[in-house]
Design a protein that fits this description.
Length: about 60
C-alpha cells in the first residue's frame, strides 16, 4: 500500500515533531520526504512462519 502522505526523513535533527507533507520534500527543512504509511500486515499470510524461520538475524 502506498500513501500520498509523506513524512520528513530527518525528524530528530531538524524538528520537535514529525512534519507531514504531500510533496517530495519537507516544507520546513528541505530534506527528502519518505512514505508515511506503515508496512502492510496480513494475519492470513500463509508463508509468514517460513519467512520468520529463514531470517538470518534470528537466534537458533
Amino acid at each position: 500500500m502506498r500513501s500520498d502522505i509523506h513524512v520528513c526523513s530527518d525528524p530528530e535533527a531538524a524538528h520537535d515533531r514529525p512534519v507531514y507533507t504531500l510533496g517530495d520534500r519537507c516544507p520546513e527543512c528541505g530534506a527528502p520526504a519518505e512514505n508515511g504509511a506503515p508496512a502492510p500486515f496480513d494475519p492470513t499470510d500463509r508463508y509468514g512462519e517460513y519467512r520468520r524461520r529463514a531470517r538470518s538475524d534470528r537466534p537458533d
